[in-house]
Amino acid sequence: MIYCGIDWAEKHHDVALVDNTGQLLAKRRISDDASGYQLLLELLAEYGDTEGSPIPVAIETSRGLLVAVLRSGKRHVFAVNPMAAARYRDRHGVSRKKSDPGDAFVLANILRTDMPMHRPLPTDTDLARAIAVLARAQQDATWNRQQIANQLRSLLREYYPAALDAFTGWANGLCRPEARELLKVAPTPTQAARLTRTQLRSALKRAGRSRGIEAEADRLQKVFRGDYATQSRLVEDALGKQALALLRQLQAACLAADELAEAVEESFLQHSDAEVILSFPGLGVQLGARMLAEIGDDRERFTDARGLKAYAGAAPVTRASGKKHHVGRRVIKNDRLNHAGYLWAFSALRSSPGAEAHYRRRREQGDWHAAAQRHLFNRMIGQLYHCLQTSHLFDENVAFPSQLATAA
């Protein structure tokens, strides 16, 4: 059997082929373009690569055009973590010097010696991979939006506390269209104090508000004309210009998050697993799409629910050495899936009596809030695995029979 290792780089890639004995059969450097990809396929075909029995490939990345070319057909592509590859490098030399051809040789030998210890890239459908791209982009846009909002809030605390008091009662705070429109009209407290009720009503209407405009305009005028400490005029104007710059970034981030959310919803609802995922309490379109993006629709990716729980960081890990025995949470995990699971468990508390009873029981046993939520996520993601495998919808009575009886 032949094994292939590819050391990935930005402009070129080093390729190495080894046989069962570890002998180097061929090495080649290819460019990162269509001609280089064709040269790679020809090299693999020269050493027996066919559609029925393709040569397995180890590479240090799971994305990009090169990986897309290699994943065509039935080929197994193994994305080896660069840190793991660095540990294997010490087996072939003690100098700790890095070389691209040498790393390609090391990657090929990883498959030759330890292929069962590594997991190939899942064979997800194109729709699932497209949902993964959109869901991760929307998640990044949401995090970026919140980061900019935190920067703007920190800046407003320095010179404009009236704005923070005015927006405190609104959900999403500075990310709301009304808040952004008012800051655009009045970026300084001096300008805000001069706003009339008519100007405030117009700003609220431009932001899309249609109800309670009169009462909200009166409230905002009272807050903006309240007694607050102020900066000097020149410093206040300078801080207002800085706030406007951050406001433009926040508006762009909000627009990107909203547009990506619409794209995620459109793609996610077309997937066959959407009905099963949305049947679970606490999972909406956006959060359900994030779960599908990280789990995928390859039914053979995880051998059992325990593998998925470990991948999500929900299952505890046991460390035992001598007389020491420690059971704790997992640090190495899929961070995106773990974050989505935390939100899922938190949302399920209000929509599932069984989930709430399970959470309360864990708290009574001494778990802190985060540990109890992690335990609930561990149970619910196991149920999700079962429902996806069997195409069954979520059933509260089947999922939490003992908790519901106790709650009753």
Task: Write down the Rg.
Answer: 28 Å
Helix content: 55-70%
Overall SS class: alpha/beta
Report the strand count: 7
Count of DSSP H/I helices? 19
Q: What strand order characterises the main sheet? A: 3-2-1-4-5
Uncertain regions spanning at least 5 consecutive residues: none
Number of domains: 3
Mean of pLDDT = 90
User: What best-fitting shape do the alpha-carbon axes yield?
Assistant: globular
Question: How would you describe this structure to a colleague?
Answer:
- This protein folds into 3 domains: 3-117, ATPase, nucleotide binding domain (Nucleotidyltransferase, domain 5, 2-Layer Sandwich); 130-266; 275-407, no CATH class.
- The protein has helices spanning 34-46, 65-70, 82-89, 100-114, 126-159, 161-167, 177-185, 189-193, 197-206, 213-224, 233-268, 274-278, 285-295, 305-312, 335-351, 353-364, 369-390, 396-399, 401-407; strands at residues 3-7, 12-18, 24-31, 57-59, 77-79, 317-321, 324-328.
- The protein is of the alpha/beta class.
- The longest helix has 36 residues, at 233-268.
- The strands form 2 sheets. A 5-stranded mixed β-sheet has the order 3-2-1-4-5. It has a two-stranded antiparallel sheet with strand order 6-7.
- A hairpin with a 2-residue loop joins strand 6 (317-321) and strand 7.
Question: Notable features of this structure?
Answer:
408 residues; alpha/beta; single chain; two-stranded antiparallel sheet
